[in-house]
Amino acid sequence: NAGVMQNPRHLVRRRGQEARLRCSPMKGHSHVYWYRQLPEEGLKFMVYLQKENIIDESGMPKERFSAEFPKEGPSILRIQQVVRGDSAAYFCASSPLGLVYNEQFFGPGTRLTVL
Amino acid sequence: SQQGEEDPQALSIQEGENATMNCSYKTSINNLQWYRQNSGRGLVHLILIRSNEREKHSGRLRVTLDTSKKSSSLLITASRAADTASYFCATVSPTGANSKLTFGKGITLSVRP
Predict the structure, then answer these.
(1) Which tens digit of pLDDT belongs to each residue from A9-42?
(2) Which residues are within 8 A (CB) of A73 and not within 5 positions of it... i.e. 6 or more apart?
(3) Measured between alpha carbons, how far is A52 from B53 in angstroms, rounded to an integer?
């Protein structure tokens, strides 16, 4: 059973470009979470999705950021018109259930660098 | 605002010694989890302790939880060089349907061979 997969692992964009980060959850997991980690910081929650639904996007910036988890295919975190402050590691986690006792399984992350 | 606050921020010990890391949090929780992150890598789940539990063990790991003090500790016994990593505590709120993790800033542990 493959773990959570994220791609690309490294992404370089110039200011104003779009960044698309993909996350394939573990097999059988229908809950996906996105977190952002700035250098020397802990992870900050961004958004929680189930298939075709956004459950909680309280950590997502109101502009330029969007996320989806379609019925088929990976979850996508999309950042439009990137700025230098978007440079960070973005981690996806998945779980089989959205209950509070769940363990979340993390992917290796996508490191976004904005030039 | 940060929910979990770990201390110390950095810890350096000799191989074979025990490492104790502490975490404090502000609001009530359903459970608290500890994760490890090796440099440049993703997070690995270590242990989960529920709010009605006081202590849990897993191999060389021992976690305690004191809900009256809103604090937890992670003890790694007989440390190894491979334990060198950043360690994070993360809490899950008891309210609502979502189960997002709220992380502290982490503790950098260095184990000298």
Answers:
(1) 999 999 999 999 999 999 988 899 999 998 877 8
(2) none
(3) 35
